[in-house]
Here is the input.
Amino acid sequence: MTDNNPQNPLPEPENPRRRSLFKAVGAAGIATAGASLLPGCGPRIEKEQANLGFAEIPHRLDHRHHLPDDYTADLLLRWGDPLDAFADRFVPEKLDAAEQSRRFGYNNDFIAFMPLDPDAGPGEGDRHCRSSNSERGLLCVNHEYTQPHLMFAGYSEAASIRGTSDQHIAVEQQACGHSVVEIEKTSGGWQPVLGSPYNRRISLTTEMDIVGAAAGDTRLRTNEDPSGMRVFGTVGNCAGGKTPWGTVLIAEEGFGGAFQGDPNKVADEVEAQNHQAFGISPENRNWGNYDRRFDISVEPHEPNRFGWMVEYDPYDPQSKPRKLTGLGRFEHEGFTLVSKPGQPIVAYGGDDDEHQFVYRFVSSGIYRPGEPAHNRALLTEGTLYAGQFREGGAGVWLPLVFGQGPLTEENGFRNQADVLIDCRRAAKLIGATPMDRPEDVETNPVNDCTYVMLTKNRKRAEGDENAANPRARNSAGHVLEIVPPGRSGERDHVSDSFRWNTFLLGGNPNAEDPAERGAYGQQVPGAISPHGWFTNPDNVAFDMRGNMWIATDGCESFGFHDGLWAMATEGELRAAPKHFFGCPQGGEICGPEFTPDGTTLFVSVQHPADADNSTFDNPLHRWPDNDPGLPPRPSVLAIRRKDGGVVGR
Ligand code: FEO
Ligand code: CA
Ligand code: CA
Here is the structure.
């Protein structure tokens, strides 16, 4: 099933560096944007990072995906593809819950590539995770949410929210969650290994433990689980992270939509406000009719068991996932780690909602390479902080600890469990800076600085701007750079203070409306082409040289496809993006993930053909199969250079 989606031969754009674009995105254009784009935080490695050698693709909007001519994409996994060796061909009309539980889930998002050591087997994650095998590994993929009107015949989008049939809800609950799929690189490209003992689905019926400071708290107890320490399933799985001890972290983001009921009818006022804050309402989808735990009038505590980070071991198919309460409860985009031997683990994450916060977790214990049993406990104990971004580029991490500052009984917190369950309220009280929807927060392994994707915030009113979120009605998003004290490669991520600066502002550098006017690196006149600008940064990855690869979610509002843009973070081409990949219309792109050798870049195309009036019966298009018998299918692509070289070089 490799390469069965023909690439579109694209006209190679002329070299943008040779074009006369100085007027378009040169110093004058940038100056009017009003952003202070400072020089980088690390060593000057411009020659290395500047060498993004691919031929840039144009902004477009059509029913295909697009890559530079000298690249190819293997169509690796699609919704409904079997994971075991004996499954039948995917026929969506025949799909039931049992079938879906053996097949790749819907709306793929985060991707982790976990290498396989050929000499180790299942359960030996500590050996596998030291491997840099780039030809065989486990692809660990989130499935964020379901869209019945694009999955099943007979629904309009409106009808699918309140009127999904029980049978279809049962399928949806198996289509959410996460997949582990062994994959191998063959002479024909990447392929799944059907029937691999590692292949696994995690869904809304997978049993999990609840661990950390909030585990067992009364607010996590339900009729089904009086212990408050055991829960079935995970939902809203957006981005995530990886640990150096071979586990994967998956985020629970938009979990509120899975629950129905009227928060005002919940007797406990704290709980009512809590449910309201996460968008639980009588208008939500009708899962509660089918599965009573999603009805808050029956189980008012069940939503408190979602909104966490989940850690699991993909190398052990029997391992039980754990919800890590120490990392707080909110609409988690993901958490990514900085792991330095002999130091605490530092993890950074964001709460993807308007005016929510950026977080940092510092483990109580020390990371000790080669001691997996010790390391596996590191994310269960530690301190969570929320970021305060001050005027002038200073920043501090404020601890979320019961009894400290305003986090006391007078303000409605009984204990640390309350601080973690009501993390948003706690972070606001201690003075964290409300941000423009924090998505991925990830540290560049080359310069050791941390980058925050802020996707947009149209709800930021005039007068409500702050130094780190400088645009009212921010529709195009921006990227911040966090610079911990110390030198490149040896920065102190444990320090409670940091410097920050604006790395770039999304948007067209020539836009008239300041809310949409982009600002990028300006050290080389004309460094970015008319296709180099983008909007709505969402996910991010760094290649081996420390170049930043940003995946977007929202460019269609600006007239072109979502996709990938790559750029240096240092040197003269710092923050000067080049356009690498474009999605089929209606889709957003998630997950970018490189193999350890950098020769493959995995990407998720989520919700292709998601558009007004586009349904299973009458979709906008049928990417990637373009088969009249199949609907559009969210899919994972493995992008390679045709000559086998390093992607982007
Ligand atoms: Fe699921 Fe934050 O996007
Ligand atoms: Ca995301
Ligand atoms: Ca997204």
Summary: The pocket of MU-OXO-diiron (ligand 1) is lined by residues 144, 238, 253, 333, 352, 439, 538 (CB under 6 Å).
